[in-house]
Every structure is written in structure tokens, then in C-alpha cells.
Amino acid sequence: MELLVVSGRPGNWISLRDPRLRILIALGFALTIVSLRQVPLLLLALFFSVALVLSTGLSPSRIFRRLLVLEGFMLVLLLLLPFSVPGEAWFRLGPMTATWEGFQQAIVILLRANAIVLALLALVGTLEPVVLGHALSRLGVPDKLAHLFLFTVRYLGLLHDEYRRLHKAMLTRGFVARGNLHTWRSLGWLVGMLLVRSLERSQRIVAAMKCRGFNGRFYLLDGQHWHWADSLYALITVTVLSVLLLLDRVT
Amino acid sequence: MAHIPDGVLTAPVLIGGALTTVAALTVALRRLDSERIPQVAVLSAAFFVSSLVSIPVGPGSVHLLLNGLMGAMLGWAAVPAILVALVLQAIFFGYGGLVVLGVNCINMVLPALICAALFGRRLRDVDSQNGFILGFLAGGLGVLLTGFMVASSIAFSNPDYLPAAKVMLFTYLPLMIVEAVVTGAAIGFARRVAPELLFLPER
Q1: Tens of pLDDT along A168-201?
Q2: Do B164 and A189 touch (CB under 8 A)?
Q3: B37 and chain A: CB distance < 8 Å anywhere?
Q4: Is B25 within 8 Å of chain A by CB?
Q5: Contact at 8 Å (CB) between B168 and B150?
Q6: Which of A60, A74, A180, A232 has the largest count of CB atoms under 10 Å?
Q7: Same domain, A99 and A180
Q8: Separation CA A17–CA A189 (nearest Å)
Q9: In the CATH hierarchy, which top-level class contains the domain B11-199?
Q10: Where in the sequence is the domain holding A189, given as residue range(s)?
Q11: Confidence band of B145 (pLDDT split at 50, 70, 90)
């Protein structure tokens, strides 16, 4: 399970809160942040998120590694925005003119995305995946989806180990990944082998579950209790988020 | 590779994405037999792990999307499988975001369903021998359509994003070629080693 576990310091104040509360706060925060337009307020939100992450005791190096992974095409968007938004000229690059308005839009996107990802990582990413599955189910996610989530999480770690075994076997035989057809085909076989192994495993699992009387119903046993303190935190969050939204509209 | 972060798209696109995802999910869950859940889950875990493999292309490297292959192999069950993968990636790896989850999901799910309709039956045909070609087409088409969906969800959000959306489409080309070859090899391999893998019920 080491693939997914992002454990913070045990016993910190976030881990004492109900998982449902943490999911709902993350959702409310994200919905609020995407509707904010003012840079100072977004900076404040980012500050909240960073404080949240630090208070969970996650190691800063891990956070940095998981900080918004800007994929190639997003980089394209952020770099091109200053040139595609009309407005006051900032600088010229050959035939193109960069504008302050475009630059500001790019900054707004960066701040929003990072604030939300950090809050999500701190509030929900520090949950055990199984606890998360139970909490989602209790929040009204359809049963089949919740079960699929729990089963997937259960087998991710195993299949990751399987992948590492297969990959190690390839390396032992002198495989070096390069950008050529041979590499791609070999990795395709690796994916194929992974699928074959997983099918065999799933057949054993289904057989074992049927032996134990599995009839499609999966009973979730957990001890999640909503405390009065959770309601208090929910109230505080709603207040803070409303103030942020009001400030964004008023100023 | 196809994760749009939060904060980029506008409300109509976000709401449209969320609604279509919920609609597709409703149909898919109704068609998903409870007894098949463990099997779909193990396969989707395998797809998830495969998408973590970084594959060198030229100076950089790419990660597979695998939605075309998932659609062809799992049919409608690919919808919840992809959603679960996206949720895990957003929450534990920081790819994508929370409010855009619906858009990110439909961007991958729709191509998967199209691949299911186009290649699902042929993949299950015992007589056909062209496993590599089917995998190649499903993998390539999955990426191509996803690229179109991502670019258009960005371009629909704001006309200012249009130039970036056009450039973006080109960044999908290397991935399309690599994914086509890799999934082609995977299907060709599976057909020889474990043909039963390809004859999973589609419903």
C-alpha cells in the first residue's frame, strides 16, 4: 500500500476529525477558490492551504514533489496566455505582444490550482484509502462505485509489487528503456503480462469470495462518528469561505 | 497527461462535464453486475499501475492514458474504473483537481466508450488474428479523442485559450504514437498468452 499512503504526523488535529468533514471541507474550499478572481484573496487562500499542509506534519520535500504537477500542455497554456489575452502591452517577443492582463490570468490559474491541490492533499490525501472509501460511501456515493473503489485500492499495492517484479526481471535481462520501437513493444508486453496476471488473480479472488458466500452485497464496517466539534469546524469553514466570497465580490 | 487542473475552466464547462459524467456513470453502474466488481477492480488496478510507467520518447517521457484499451476490454465498466483512477490520482498524487473531476472524467470516458463500440466486439472475435492492429487503433484513437476533448474543453471555456488549445493538440501526437504501439503489443501479447483475457463479458 505504500503507493498511496501519504501519512502525516499521527494524532494531529486533522486526523481527529471525521473523514466526511474533511472531504466536505475540501469540496467547499475548491468550489470557493475556483470562483475567486482577486489575486490578494487567492494568495490568502494559498496561505491557508500551506498552513494546513504544514499542520498535518507532512514532510515539506514530499509536498514539493506532489505540488501541482504541471503537465506539458498546461505549461503551454500558461506560457501562451500573456500573448493571447488582449490588453495593456507588457513586453514584445518578436511579432507577439505579451499583456499584463494575460499574465494576471495565468497567475490566477496557478494560484487557484495550487491552493486546491494542497488543501486536497492535506485534508483528504492524508486519509487511509480504505477510510476514504467508507467515507465516500457514507456521503451517498453509489454502493457499486464505493465497492469498486475499495477493491481497486486493495489490489493497487499488490499489482504495483507485481509490476516491480516484472520490471526487475526485465532489467536483469539487460533491458534499457530508450525511445525506440523495441522499448515500446517490450513495455507493451509488460502491460500485457500485468493484465494477464491480474486476470488470474481476480479469478482466484472471485472464487474465494463466492466460497465465503459473496452475493454482491459488501458490508462496510467502520467506526466513523460525527462529533459536535466536527459541526463546529464545518460552521467555521462555511463562515470563512463566505467571507472570502463576499470580499471577492465587494472589492 | 489529460488532467486539467482546477481554476482553468469556466462554470458552464465544469457543470456540463459533471452532468455528462454523472449520466454516463448512472448507465454504467446499472449495467455493472455486482459479481463482476472484483474482476473490474483488479483490472483497473492493473491499468492504474501501467499508467505510472514512464515511457521514453525522444528527449522526454510520457505516461499512458490507456482509456482506449480500457474501453475496448471493459466496455461500460470502464466508466467507473476511470473515475476511480482519476479520484485516486487527484487525491494522492495531486494530478488534476476536485471541481474539474467531472470534465476530466468525461474527457477520458467518452473516447473509451467510442473505442468500446468500435473495437469491443472485434476484440472478442475468436477468429480474427489482428490483435496488434486492434490494440494499436484503440490505443491511438483513445489518445487522439482525449486530446480533442481536453483541447475543446479549454477552448470552450475562454476564447483567449484557443491558441494554447491548438498547440496543446500537438503535444498529444507523440503520446498517441507511443500508446498505439504499446497497447498494440499488449493486446497481441494477451491474445497469444491468455486469450480469455479478451473474452471478458462486455456488459
Answers
A1: 999 999 999 888 899 999 999 999 999 998 888 8
A2: no
A3: yes
A4: yes
A5: yes
A6: A74
A7: no
A8: 45
A9: mainly alpha
A10: 142-211
A11: very high
